[in-house]
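Notebook entry, cofactor series.
This is the third protein in the set we're modelling with a bound small molecule. For this one the ligand is magnesium ion. I'm keeping the input format identical across the series so the outputs can be compared line by line later. Sequence and SMILES below, as received.
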Amino acid sequence: MATVVFDFDSTLVPVESLEEVLRACDLDEDRLRWVEEITRRGMEGELDFRASLESRLAIAAPTREAVRAAGQDLAERLTPGAQACIAELRAGGHQVRIVSGGFRDVILPAARVLGLDAAHVHAVSAHWTPDGAFASLVEDGFVESKVAGAGALHPEWPRPVIAVGDGATDMALARAGIADHFVAFTEHVRRRFLDDAEVPEARSMDELRTLLAGLVTPSDD
Ligand SMILES: [Mg+2]
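Returned structure with ligand:
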């Protein structure tokens, strides 16, 4: 039995979920451009994850309603083949988890469609006011990084652990020893860090299924 840890944004769905949430917040052109600039600086490593997230939330504090609406929308826009890939892994006795830098509430509807337990979705959580306005981020490891968040959880995960995603933050799970293998998923976006990283790459869920079959060990139970 192995554990396959999926990234969410630009992996299980074709877009970045926080962008979808903020788009649902009716930003004017100036604020939208500002948010996009901060996103770009984060992707290029000029801003750390927490600074990037907090800056964008300060410009556009999302409502709980916008988060839920974006979540429902994304549950209907899964990457083609994601459901079949995850169903096959689970049928083989493997554990499937999501580790994301997005809002957990945005991911949960998609996780339900994918047949995943909510307890296997690890991401950023928010506190909301009683009328559904954004109050603050929950101070756990996930507001710092995926490595900080998953670092406290992974001792419980069946090994080998295989991380799948489009980002350097997903590869970092393997570099930190949280995952034993990393597979880059590049159907939606192929980032520059991969040019120097000698890692297996899947350009579709079909290719991913083939690669994963060679990395998960056969299950006896
Ligand atoms: Mg991603």
